[in-house]
Protein backbone atom coordinates (compact mmCIF):
# COMPACT_ATOMS: atom_id res chain seq x y z
CA UNK A 1 0.00 0.00 0.00
CA UNK A 2 2.73 2.43 0.91
CA UNK A 3 4.57 1.57 -2.24
CA UNK A 4 1.44 2.46 -4.23
CA UNK A 5 1.18 5.78 -2.44
CA UNK A 6 4.78 6.52 -3.18
CA UNK A 7 4.12 5.86 -6.87
CA UNK A 8 1.18 8.28 -6.83
CA UNK A 9 3.35 10.95 -5.23
CA UNK A 10 5.99 10.45 -7.90
CA UNK A 11 3.43 10.91 -10.64
CA UNK A 12 2.07 14.06 -9.03
CA UNK A 13 5.44 15.78 -9.09
CA UNK A 14 5.66 18.35 -11.90
CA UNK A 15 8.02 17.52 -14.71
CA UNK A 16 10.77 20.07 -15.18
CA UNK A 17 10.47 21.72 -18.60
CA UNK A 18 13.53 21.99 -20.79
CA UNK A 19 14.69 25.54 -21.52
CA UNK A 20 13.55 26.82 -24.91
CA UNK A 21 16.08 26.34 -27.63
CA UNK A 22 17.83 29.50 -28.80
CA UNK A 23 16.56 30.71 -32.11
CA UNK A 24 19.23 30.77 -34.79
CA UNK A 25 20.44 34.20 -35.81
CA UNK A 26 18.93 35.58 -38.96
CA UNK A 27 21.21 34.65 -41.82
CA UNK A 28 22.38 37.56 -43.90
CA UNK A 29 22.05 37.52 -47.63
CA UNK A 30 25.10 37.16 -49.82
CA UNK A 31 24.99 40.83 -50.70
CA UNK A 32 24.76 41.94 -47.06
CA UNK A 33 27.60 39.64 -46.02
CA UNK A 34 29.84 40.91 -48.80
CA UNK A 35 28.96 44.51 -47.96
CA UNK A 36 29.92 43.98 -44.33
CA UNK A 37 33.26 42.40 -45.30
CA UNK A 38 34.04 45.24 -47.70
CA UNK A 39 33.23 47.84 -45.08
CA UNK A 40 35.46 46.17 -42.49
CA UNK A 41 38.26 45.92 -45.05
CA UNK A 42 38.05 49.63 -45.80
CA UNK A 43 38.05 50.55 -42.10
CA UNK A 44 41.11 48.36 -41.62
CA UNK A 45 42.78 50.13 -44.53
CA UNK A 46 42.14 53.48 -42.85
CA UNK A 47 43.66 52.25 -39.59
CA UNK A 48 46.79 51.02 -41.37
CA UNK A 49 47.11 54.17 -43.43
CA UNK A 50 50.22 56.29 -42.97
CA UNK A 51 49.60 58.87 -41.70
CA UNK A 52 46.51 57.52 -39.91
CA UNK A 53 43.26 58.51 -41.56
CA UNK A 54 39.81 58.78 -40.04
CA UNK A 55 36.56 58.21 -41.87
CA UNK A 56 35.48 61.82 -41.31
CA UNK A 57 38.55 63.08 -43.19
CA UNK A 58 38.28 60.56 -45.99
CA UNK A 59 37.73 62.02 -49.47
CA UNK A 60 37.34 60.78 -53.02
CA UNK A 61 41.12 60.85 -53.49
CA UNK A 62 41.57 58.42 -50.60
CA UNK A 63 38.94 56.12 -52.12
CA UNK A 64 40.84 56.08 -55.42
CA UNK A 65 44.03 55.29 -53.50
CA UNK A 66 42.20 52.38 -51.87
CA UNK A 67 41.10 51.04 -55.26
CA UNK A 68 44.67 51.16 -56.56
CA UNK A 69 45.80 49.35 -53.43
CA UNK A 70 43.41 46.50 -54.25
CA UNK A 71 44.97 45.99 -57.69
CA UNK A 72 47.71 43.83 -56.15
CA UNK A 73 45.03 41.27 -55.30
CA UNK A 74 43.44 41.31 -58.75
CA UNK A 75 43.09 38.30 -61.04
CA UNK A 76 42.36 39.98 -64.38
CA UNK A 77 45.11 40.19 -67.00
CA UNK A 78 45.34 43.71 -68.38
CA UNK A 79 47.79 43.96 -71.28
CA UNK A 80 50.14 46.92 -71.47
CA UNK A 81 50.18 49.12 -74.54
CA UNK A 82 53.50 47.60 -75.70
CA UNK A 83 52.35 43.99 -75.31
CA UNK A 84 51.99 41.86 -78.45
CA UNK A 85 48.58 40.73 -77.23
CA UNK A 86 47.23 44.21 -76.55
CA UNK A 87 43.61 44.36 -77.62
CA UNK A 88 43.22 40.59 -78.04
CA UNK A 89 40.44 39.04 -75.94
CA UNK A 90 41.96 35.52 -76.06
CA UNK A 91 45.78 35.65 -76.22
CA UNK A 92 47.36 32.37 -77.42
CA UNK A 93 50.20 32.45 -74.88
CA UNK A 94 50.93 33.98 -71.47
CA UNK A 95 52.60 37.35 -71.12
CA UNK A 96 54.29 39.26 -68.27
CA UNK A 97 51.52 41.89 -68.06
CA UNK A 98 50.27 42.52 -64.50
CA UNK A 99 47.02 41.37 -62.98
CA UNK A 100 44.50 44.00 -61.98
CA UNK A 101 41.09 44.25 -60.40
CA UNK A 102 38.43 44.03 -63.09
CA UNK A 103 36.40 47.16 -63.69
CA UNK A 104 33.15 45.35 -62.91
CA UNK A 105 34.46 44.25 -59.52
CA UNK A 106 35.56 47.77 -58.61
CA UNK A 107 32.24 49.26 -59.70
CA UNK A 108 30.28 46.77 -57.58
CA UNK A 109 32.61 47.38 -54.62
CA UNK A 110 32.03 51.12 -54.73
CA UNK A 111 28.28 50.55 -54.82
CA UNK A 112 28.40 48.41 -51.67
CA UNK A 113 30.69 50.82 -49.82
CA UNK A 114 28.50 53.77 -50.76
CA UNK A 115 25.48 52.01 -49.26
CA UNK A 116 27.39 50.91 -46.15
CA UNK A 117 28.60 54.45 -45.53
CA UNK A 118 25.05 55.82 -45.42
CA UNK A 119 23.75 52.86 -43.40
CA UNK A 120 26.37 53.56 -40.72
CA UNK A 121 24.69 56.88 -39.97
CA UNK A 122 26.67 59.30 -42.13
CA UNK A 123 25.12 61.98 -44.29
CA UNK A 124 24.81 61.20 -48.00
CA UNK A 125 26.22 64.64 -48.87
CA UNK A 126 29.60 63.74 -47.34
CA UNK A 127 29.81 60.27 -48.90
CA UNK A 128 33.34 59.97 -50.37
CA UNK A 129 32.35 56.90 -52.43
CA UNK A 130 29.86 59.03 -54.36
CA UNK A 131 32.42 61.70 -55.25
CA UNK A 132 32.73 62.79 -58.86
CA UNK A 133 36.45 61.94 -58.89
CA UNK A 134 35.62 58.31 -58.10
CA UNK A 135 33.15 58.10 -60.98
CA UNK A 136 35.70 59.56 -63.38
CA UNK A 137 38.35 57.09 -62.21
CA UNK A 138 36.02 54.12 -62.72
CA UNK A 139 35.18 55.35 -66.21
CA UNK A 140 38.86 55.63 -67.08
CA UNK A 141 39.54 52.11 -65.77
CA UNK A 142 36.65 50.76 -67.82
CA UNK A 143 37.85 52.36 -71.05
CA UNK A 144 41.49 51.36 -70.50
CA UNK A 145 40.63 47.74 -69.75
CA UNK A 146 38.25 47.56 -72.70
CA UNK A 147 41.05 48.61 -75.08
CA UNK A 148 43.72 46.44 -73.44
CA UNK A 149 41.61 43.29 -73.28
CA UNK A 150 39.69 43.82 -76.50
CA UNK A 151 36.38 43.41 -74.68
CA UNK A 152 34.07 46.40 -74.99
CA UNK A 153 31.90 47.14 -72.00
CA UNK A 154 28.41 47.92 -73.20
CA UNK A 155 26.04 49.53 -70.79
CA UNK A 156 23.02 47.38 -70.25
CA UNK A 157 19.89 49.15 -71.28
CA UNK A 158 16.87 48.61 -69.17
CA UNK A 159 14.00 47.22 -71.09
CA UNK A 160 11.06 49.47 -70.70
CA UNK A 161 7.78 47.70 -70.43
CA UNK A 162 5.72 48.64 -73.38
CA UNK A 163 2.28 49.61 -72.25
CA UNK A 164 -0.36 47.97 -74.33
CA UNK A 165 -2.29 50.71 -76.00
CA UNK A 166 -6.01 50.09 -76.43
CA UNK A 167 -7.18 49.62 -80.02
CA UNK A 168 -8.55 52.73 -81.70
CA UNK A 169 -12.33 53.12 -81.54
CA UNK A 170 -14.29 52.19 -84.68
CA UNK A 171 -15.18 55.07 -86.99
CA UNK A 172 -18.63 56.58 -86.37
CA UNK A 173 -21.40 55.66 -88.84
CA UNK A 174 -22.07 58.21 -91.61
CA UNK A 175 -24.65 60.78 -90.56
CA UNK A 176 -27.33 61.76 -93.11
CA UNK A 177 -28.21 65.42 -93.24
CA UNK A 178 -31.88 66.29 -92.68
CA UNK A 179 -32.07 68.22 -95.98
CA UNK A 180 -30.70 65.31 -97.96
CA UNK A 181 -33.12 62.93 -96.26
CA UNK A 182 -36.03 65.25 -97.03
CA UNK A 183 -34.86 65.55 -100.65
CA UNK A 184 -34.65 61.78 -100.95
CA UNK A 185 -38.12 61.45 -99.43
CA UNK A 186 -39.51 64.10 -101.83
CA UNK A 187 -37.90 62.35 -104.80
CA UNK A 188 -39.39 59.06 -103.70
CA UNK A 189 -42.82 60.67 -103.26
CA UNK A 190 -42.58 62.34 -106.69
CA UNK A 191 -41.58 59.07 -108.31
CA UNK A 192 -44.48 57.30 -106.63
CA UNK A 193 -46.93 60.03 -107.72
CA UNK A 194 -45.62 59.85 -111.28
CA UNK A 195 -46.10 56.10 -111.30
CA UNK A 196 -49.66 56.47 -110.01
CA UNK A 197 -50.39 59.14 -112.63
CA UNK A 198 -48.99 56.92 -115.36
CA UNK A 199 -51.21 54.08 -114.23
CA UNK A 200 -54.21 56.44 -114.19
CA UNK A 201 -53.46 57.62 -117.74
CA UNK A 202 -53.20 54.06 -118.93
CA UNK A 203 -56.53 53.20 -117.36
CA UNK A 204 -58.21 56.24 -118.98
CA UNK A 205 -56.78 55.34 -122.38
CA UNK A 206 -57.98 51.79 -122.03
CA UNK A 207 -61.43 52.99 -121.02
CA UNK A 208 -61.59 55.36 -124.00
CA UNK A 209 -60.55 52.61 -126.38
CA UNK A 210 -63.20 50.33 -124.98
CA UNK A 211 -65.85 53.07 -125.37
CA UNK A 212 -64.80 53.69 -128.99
CA UNK A 213 -65.11 50.03 -129.83
CA UNK A 214 -68.49 49.86 -128.15
CA UNK A 215 -69.72 52.97 -129.96
CA UNK A 216 -68.52 51.68 -133.34
CA UNK A 217 -70.36 48.44 -132.87
CA UNK A 218 -73.54 50.21 -131.93
CA UNK A 219 -73.34 52.45 -135.02
CA UNK A 220 -73.06 49.49 -137.30
CA UNK A 221 -76.10 47.91 -135.77
CA UNK A 222 -78.10 51.09 -136.18
CA UNK A 223 -77.15 51.43 -139.82
CA UNK A 224 -78.02 47.88 -140.52
CA UNK A 225 -81.37 48.19 -138.81
CA UNK A 226 -82.15 51.36 -140.68
CA UNK A 227 -81.25 49.78 -143.98
CA UNK A 228 -83.35 46.79 -143.17
CA UNK A 229 -86.29 48.98 -142.30
CA UNK A 230 -85.91 51.04 -145.41
CA UNK A 231 -85.71 48.13 -147.79
CA UNK A 232 -89.33 46.99 -147.53
CA UNK A 233 -90.52 50.51 -148.16
CA UNK A 234 -88.64 50.65 -151.41
CA UNK A 235 -89.88 47.25 -152.40
CA UNK A 236 -93.48 48.22 -151.69
CA UNK A 237 -93.19 51.26 -153.88
CA UNK A 238 -91.88 49.13 -156.75
UniProtKB/TrEMBL annotation:
Stretches with biased composition (Low complexity): 9-27, 177-213, 222-238
InterPro entries referenced in this protein's UniProt entry, alphabetically: ALOG, ALOG_dom
GO cellular component annotations of the record: nucleus
Superkingdom to which the source organism belongs: Eukaryota
Locations listed in the record: Nucleus
Entry-linked Pfam families: ALOG_dom (PF04852)
Domain ALOG residue range list: 30-157
Stretch list, region Disordered: 1-28, 147-238
UniProt keyword list: Developmental protein, DNA-binding, Nucleus, Transcription, Transcription regulation
Annotated GO MF terms: DNA binding
Family statement: Belongs to the plant homeotic and developmental regulators ALOG protein family.
Protein name in the entry: ALOG domain-containing protein
Annotated organism of origin: Oryza glumipatula
Amino acid sequence: MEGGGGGADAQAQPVAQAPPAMQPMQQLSRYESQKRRDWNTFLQYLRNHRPPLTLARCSGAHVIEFLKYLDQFGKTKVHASGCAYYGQPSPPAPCPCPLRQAWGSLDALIGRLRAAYEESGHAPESNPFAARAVRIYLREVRDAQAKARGIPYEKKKRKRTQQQQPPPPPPPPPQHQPGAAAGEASSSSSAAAAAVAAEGSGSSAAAAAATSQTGGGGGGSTTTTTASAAAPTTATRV
